[in-house]
Amino acid sequence: MAVHRGSCHCNAVQFEVEADIVSGAQCDCSLCRRKNAVMLRIPKENFRLLKGEDALSLYQWNTHVAKHYFCKNCGIYTHHQPRTRADMIGVNLGCLDGIDAGKLPVERVEGSKLSGGR
Ligand SMILES: [Zn+2]
After folding, report:
1. In this structure, is residue 118 part of a structural domain?
2. Residues lining ligand 1 (ion), CB within 5 A?
3. What percent of the chain clears pLDDT 90, i.e. is strictly above it?
4. Which entry of 11, 43, 53, 78 is 20 to 30 Å from 72 by CA?
5. What is the 12 CA–ligand 1 centroid distance (Å)?
């Protein structure tokens, strides 16, 4: 699998993911609609935070199970720990070097219709 470097906009948060990226996902829950990010879903162990743990801020809402991380300097969503899959990580494809998320097929995820979703 390929290793891709990623960062927030101000570079305070840097990470790498190990993944063969062939598609993205977009969720329709009330948070994701506002973020409008195309995400990559990978096993947790394929995500490594390299720098910026202290720059990350955490947003939690609704059931307060999922962990939505963003850079507190530049406000960019970098990754999140989904509510329904503790073994997975969602990564903002737009943060990855050399990846044009707009050119990938995007799967629609209906997060708003999951049990407890909105
Ligand atoms: Zn930043």
Report:
1. no
2. 8, 10, 12, 71, 73-74
3. 81
4. 43
5. 5
- What's the CA-to-centroid distance between 113 and ligand 1, angstroms? 31
User: What is the rounded end-to-end Cα distance, in angstroms, of the chain?
Assistant: 34
Whether residue 92 contacts residue 13, with contact meaning beta carbons closer than 8 Å, is answered with: no
Please tell me the predicted confidence (pLDDT) of residue 28.
92
Distance from the CA of 99 to the center of ligand 1, in angstroms? Answer: 18
Q: What is the CATH number of the domain that holds 41?
A: 2.170.150.70
Residue 54 belongs to a domain? yes
For residue range 29-50, list pLDDT tens digits in order.
Answer: 999 999 999 999 999 999 999 9
Whole-number Å distance between alpha carbons of 52 and 48: 11
- Both structure tokens of 71: 């850079």
Query: Which structural domain range is residue 32 located in?
Result: 3-113
- How much is the pLDDT for 11? 98
**DSSP 8-state secondary structure symbol assigned to residue 68:** E
